[in-house]
Amino acid sequence: MISPFFLLALPVLLALGTLLLPRVFTGLLSCACYLVGAGLLIPVVAAGESHLLSLPWVSQLGMDFDLRMTPFSAWFGFLIFTIGAGIVLYAASYFHGNPRLRTILSCLLFFTSAMLGVIWSDNFFVLFLFWEATSLFSFLLVGFHHEKDDARAKAAQGLLVTFFGGAAMLAGFILLWLESGVTSISALLEMDLASNPPSTAAIILIMLGALTKSAQFPFHFWLPNAMAGPTPVSAFLHSATMVKAGVFLLATLAPVMHSHPIWTPVLVPLGLITVILSTYKGLREEDMKGILACTTLAALGLLTVLAGIGTPAALKGFVIFLTAHALYKAPLFLSAGNLEKRFGTRQLPRLRGAILTTPVTGAVIVISILSLLGLPPFLGFLGKEYLLKAAWDFSPLVACLTALAAAGALCVGLRLLMPLLARQDRAEVKKAIPVAMSISTAIPALAALSLIALYPWANANLLARAASSLSRETVAGFSFWHGLTPALGLGLGALLLAGTAHLILRKKATQPVGKSFFEGIYDATIGALLQASKKIAGLLEEGSLRHHLAFMLTAIGILSLISLQITDWPSLSNPSSRHSAIFIALSPALAIATIAAARASNPLAILVSLGFVGLLIAFLFLWFSAPDLALTQLLAETLIIFLMAGVLFKNRQKPNSKSGHAWRMIVAGAGGLLVTLLILKSMALEWDHPVSGYYLAESKTAAFGANVVNVILVDFRALDTLGEIIVLAIAALGANAALGAARTRSPLPGNSSSPWLAAGLPLVIGLLVPTALWIFWRGHNAPGGGFIAALLIASAIGLGQLGERPFLTTQRMRTISRRLLVSGLTIALVSSLLPLSQGLPYFTGLWWHSGDFHIGTPVLFDLGVSLTVIGFTVSFFRHFQLSRF
Amino acid sequence: MEILISATIGILVAAGIYRLLGGTKVDIIVGLVLISQGANLIILASGGLKHNAPAILTDGTKNTDAMADPLPQALVLTAIVIGFGILAFMLTLLTRSSAK
Amino acid sequence: MNPELLILIALFTPLIGAIVALLLPTRPRAAAWTAIVASSITLAAGLALVQLSSDGSAHAIHAGNWKAPFGLVLVSDAFSAIMIAVSQLVILASLIFCAFTLPAHFHRRHIYPLILTLSMGTSGAFLTGDLFNLYVWFEVLLLSSFALMAMIRGEKGRAAAWRYVVINLVSSLLFLTAAGLIYGKTGTLNFAELRLRFAEAEASFLIDSSAALLFGAFGIKAALIPLAFWLPRSYPQLPPALSALFAGLLTKVGLYAFFRVFGMVFSNGTTFPHQDVLFIIAIITMVGGVLGAVAQGDMRRILSFHIISQVGYMALALAIFTPLALTAGIFYLGHHIIVKANLFLVTGLVERHVGSSDLGMVRGVARSSPLIALLFAVPALSLAGLPPLSGFFAKFALLNSSLSIHEWTAAAAIVLVGLLTVFSMLKIWRAVFWGEPAKSGPGPLKVLALTSGILSVITIAIGLAAGPLIDLAGQAANGLLNPEAYLDAVLHSQP
User: Fold this and answer.
1) Continuous segment of H or E residues that includes residue A706
2) Which of A782, C1, C248, C441 could, after both became Cys, cross-link C341 (CB 3.0–4.6 A)?
3) Bridge partner list, A847
4) Interface test with C, best of B25, B29, B37, B71 (most C CBs within 10 A)
């Protein structure tokens, strides 16, 4: 027994077929499948039971793929398939010859599945999924003729309004879940909902979703605008199916929510207002589709009223009203399309007497409008009767208001019908209507007629079942005659009122209504949004770099300052007394040098002051017992000055603009103050340093090195060093990337040929290189190591380039630097991975000992580091053209 | 001493920020150099400063508490080298913009 | 496969690939293939690590056989594994685009070694268990991105590169300073060790001010407002293949650092320093970013501003700091990297097809190339949060987590920003894809369309398989809030 839920997937399969195998899958096939689907649903309705399907999906978020098919939703499905059959056949014919036929057909098919998903979902969030899918497909379908500006704008409007509602609905569902603990409609219907703020909020949000979808006041403006889409789309989505999703949801939830104090007072008035507004607009509209859109709004309004009332009687009326409306509205839209094809226009004044010359379509129009007007024996009569009956049972006042509102809708219906039956000034026939279009127009109307023809059976087995399942009360069925009830009276009264109004108004010349007030609000919101966004984009993008930097530093600084909590500090233990003379001289000297560097404007001043800063810091390092650091700082500083000299002297930019000293000082001062406080705070907190203690303890014994700093670099924390040399390699590659063809061809101001240089250079270099090797070798046990050795060698190379006959040409420098970089990295990598062959973790030191002499992989690693550093510096010498050749 | 060194570093960083906000590329580079020197000193200073403490282990070292803390030194060394690399790269960015 | 080996593969394969690619300067094809092979291997390792840590376990390898916290550790827990796998996927896609779309001069500039070093930097950042080591990998990552940025030609490109470099260097300096200060105050740099110290309530106040500097450093990288000034001026200048890499990855590494360092290391399981500040900034970022996007007139610029807005979402997830919120945040990270990179790649396809991605100049791509339209629609809808795509579940979980703790502002922001995101995507769709096509070039190269298509399929698959994936993200989140497995692996396992 195949689950009836297979019908959910049927349209998708058809759509895929249409896209992938176009010749086989035509409109006719889809139409036939739809009719079969409709047929398959009839026994489901008649059986009177609910079917459930549950597939786990994302249970942690309460979203399982739960489907539920009650007799009512099966009945609605039947309606969708029946009408859909007509639509699909119609569309195939309407767009015949259009190269995008497959697109629209498959869109309609996908949409059908989405719509079925909405009505058959049980889980809140799966409902949301299908809900949004229907909005999305509606967007694509309304915007089908997207070469027109109009269509694009209106499609977007519909999408945004319904997505807004959808998002609100999602939030509402989540709140409902949090409040009640259930995630499915079937479970919700078994509960009592408490009336507290969270559930009120949830209900309001869910109502927002439904109201936007069904275009109720104040979101009514998007529905008439959606008429910009092609006729089959308007017929399917915006009359019979998609817009019904909102009221469907309201009606489904009504049994449990109508007792909530906010439900009826909100929904009933909004529904009534919508009906009245639609009348106002419909009486001024001239386009057939426009008028039909207004009557759709009215019908949705009345359905909202019914859902708002929410009593079992109201829900009973809901079922029949829905059925009647779907079955008469869709054919009317399709007929409008037919008339447009036949007479070349949709404007009512130019379609006078159209029915008289169009047999099939005309008959359909007449039948459908008679149903709209609520005349027996059509289903529309039942709809009107039960609407008014339920309203009267609820409140006679509401019933009267409803009748009045309904009268307006009826008036619009009359306005539509009468000109089409006029005998004078008949419109001219332009073309014939294709047979397929006529037949497809008739399909829903035929379905309605069959229901009436088979009324006793249909009533008992289909309508009654559907009504029972929605209202949750056993319903015997709908009957045409109840005696002289107030409902009947009101209905007749409404009809009379409508007829009178029509007679009075029909002679008046009218103009279509402009934009509604609420659409104006929508437009204004979008406008304000665009304004705000321009401003914000400006804030984020424009502005000079220095202003942005200042802003960022200030923001971060403030955050840090307010977290300092100075009062909570433990006091500074022993503000140390070691104020030796050297230190007292060093600090101010450093301060002076930095201030000089801050204000230096010509290249030479910059270089000298930076040089002094570096030098003094090196001394500071020495004073603080960091010999390796001092050496590295000195050498790195030298090379930096060397490189900067090459660049600064060629730089043509005017340094140090005169502006903004004041605010720069403020920001800088604040930053400096913050830094001072931060350092003091960290000095004031005394934690023990087990990590360093371990290093000091293990360095000689386990890592065979007395220079603990070096041991940390190549053994304990060698991974850091590996990253560091990779950074150097990247910098070299990056310089290559940056300069590329932009490299200037002008070398440094001429290599001089002084005799001092000629004699002295080889001497200095001859001293430097062996020193470097020695420093490398002893680095593990005394100040020194790979970096320092490499920097020395690099300095030697740099010096060598200054002589009259530098021995490295640009080409050689490029080759050498690349080889050094690659080999350095490879050696470092190999030395780190070698231990793996011994089953030891990476970077473990493998040592060979001979007495007191130890050599191991960390030394190899150090070699790799050296080679990389040398390669890096040589590559930069090349980049800065430190060669004549 | 703590106060003096903290203040000195503070001045260094302040000078760097002042220069960084100067507006030209050279200003920015000089400012970054100063600030990174400052950052290095901050690491060393907050790690705990000892003057005249032995830095190298000898065979006779029993009391490792008196020795200089080697970890901040290693960190600063790494930072100096990384800074060196980055600075060299930035200089190339400077070169090409002035090489038009 | 044992996890130790996998971690090493994840870290070192890109390096080996980079070295090999460096040896092939005259053979771009070979270098490209090297890079692709290396990334594929790393991706495989990442996926294997995900598989291994899906039960919430963590694995650590200790460099040099020194036990933590004395030596450096690389740790792989569920969070790291997810990040590695997803980022390698994006790197791979980007490499394929680079190989086929970038002009030859990029190869001479060593683009493949640089992308591989960038890859290594990200792997290192995701795996490291030490604060200073994280700084080093950030520098590797950053400098590689500087080098890639520097390849852009033209005046605007240079200005963009300069701005990008300077601001990110400031961020590095802040990071360095903070690391030093934190060492000074706590005596250690090891994540596990630090976490133990901060496990007592109120202990983290000691580093509040240094943590603020770190907040700033990571905030600049992640592009939180008011630290995001560098992004709108620099990202749009990149060629699409590279922008996919940047947009997909770099800001997310900054976010990863936030999650790991603030969410795990500095936290005590319930709160972390500056959590309230992060909350406010997250909301400002979410709203500001998307408003900025709405005003733009070019696909790339809109998508760049979106990055800022989406970063706000993930920061919000962290700021809320409940298990569900963190799960949402991690899921969001994974989903977003893929979707954002895909969107930029598709932008590249559009540009190749019609010559530009300016909204005023392009029209009708949906008709001239329905394939490109579909390739755009999937990630765009996912970003906007349409079910059943991946983005929906991320936003849904986040919305859920904020509603369940009654954070109405956050919930409203999530919904509102989602709508605005739809609005800006609509802007692109209406201008670029709808309308009558003006002119069109050839359709996309098959291999490029396939790459983007695979990413789209993955996006759909993440949505359909959201159940197990949310579980995985939940494990990762739990690993942050209750890092016993992490601490165990680092501190107690045999090195």
Assistant:
1) none
2) C248
3) A856
4) B71
